[in-house]
Amino acid sequence: MLNLVQEIKSRFAEHDDFFIQEEQFHQITVYLLGLSTLIDFTNSNLYIRQMAKMSSSITELFTNLSDQLDVDAEQIAKGIVEGRLVLISESNRNVLLDPISHNLSRNIDQPKNESNILGPMDAFVENIDTNLGLLRKWLSTDRLCHRSYQVGELGKRRISMLYIKGRAPSALIEKVDQQLKQIEMDIDTIDDLNKHFGQRKFNPVSCLFSTEIPNQAIDSLKKNRVVLFIDNYPYALVFPHLFLDMLSTVNDRNFPYGLSLMIRTLRGLGALATLVLPALYVALTSVNPDVLKIDLALFISESREGIPLTPIIETLTMVVIVDLIIEAIVRLPKSVGPAITMVGGIILGQAMVEAKLVSNLLVIVITAMLIASSAVVGVQNSLYIRALKYPILILASVYGILGLFAGLTFVCIYLASLTSCGIPYVTFRIEGKGDTK
Question: Distance between CA 273 and CA 193 in Å, rounded?
Answer without folding.
Answer: 31
